[in-house]
């Protein structure tokens, strides 16, 4: 199995909502289900236990009916400033294909939020490449959906 070096994505968004509201959209499973994933995806299963050591499990469903399950665990939660979590896509047997270290920061800018997402994947396998190649676009679309959800 060949591996590439690493992939890093860094995206910032200015959101027309308070850091408290945007932070809550990241940690409340009902809110996460409403915006998580690329455009056209739904999240019929969305379990989020946002605390250090807490787990997440999300099944993203594409418009063609394909399910994309993912899992993760939270490493750091600093309300309403920062969330650090590891996430990973699962194959059809429930095995993790790759893991992403995600850091999300929320900066208060006069009552609005400057959100910055940093996602890093190391040791990308050939099996993981289709997922990691689309990471930038996928996160951009997710953050666009988040912006719509919080009213930005």
Provide a compact summary of the structure:
The chain is an alpha+beta fold and 152 residues long. 24% of the residues lie in helices and 50% in strands. The mean pLDDT is 93.
Figure out the total of helices: 4
Uncertain residue ranges? none
Distance between the termini: 43 Å
Radius of gyration: 15 Å
H/E element sequence: EHHEEEEEEHH
> How much helical structure, as a percent, in the residues?
10-25%
Overall mean pLDDT: 93
Walkthrough of the structure:
Helix content is 24%, strand content 50%. It has 152 residues and is an alpha+beta fold. Strands 1-7-6-5-4-3-2 form a seven-stranded antiparallel β-sheet.
Give structural attributes.
152 residues, alpha+beta, seven-stranded antiparallel beta sheet, 4 helices, globular
Topology:
Layout: E1 3-15, H1 19-27, H2 29-35, E2 42-48, E3 55-61, E4 67-78, E5 82-90, E6 96-109, E7 112-125, H3 129-133, H4 135-150
Antiparallel strand pairs: 1-7, 2-3, 3-4, 4-5, 5-6, 6-7
Helix pairs in contact: 1-2
């Amino acid at each position: 199995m060949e591996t590439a070096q690493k992939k890093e994505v860094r995206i910032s968004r200015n959101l027309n909502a308070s850091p408290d509201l945007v932070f809550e959209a990241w940690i409340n499973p009902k809110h996460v289900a409403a915006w998580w994933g690329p455009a056209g995806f739904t999240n019929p299963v969305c379990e989020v236990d946002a605390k250090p050591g807490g787990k997440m499990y999300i099944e993203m469903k594409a418009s063609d009916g394909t399910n994309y399950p993912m899992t993760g665990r939270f490493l750091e939660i600093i309300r309403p400033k920062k969330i650090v979590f590891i996430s990973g896509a699962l194959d059809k047997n429930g095995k993790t294909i790759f893991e992403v270290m995600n850091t999300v920061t929320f900066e208060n800018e006069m009552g609005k939020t400057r959100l910055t997402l940093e996602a890093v994947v190391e040791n990308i396998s050939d099996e993981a490449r289709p997922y990691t190649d689309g990471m930038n676009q996928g996160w951009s679309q997710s953050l666009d959906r988040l912006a719509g959800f919080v009213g930005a």
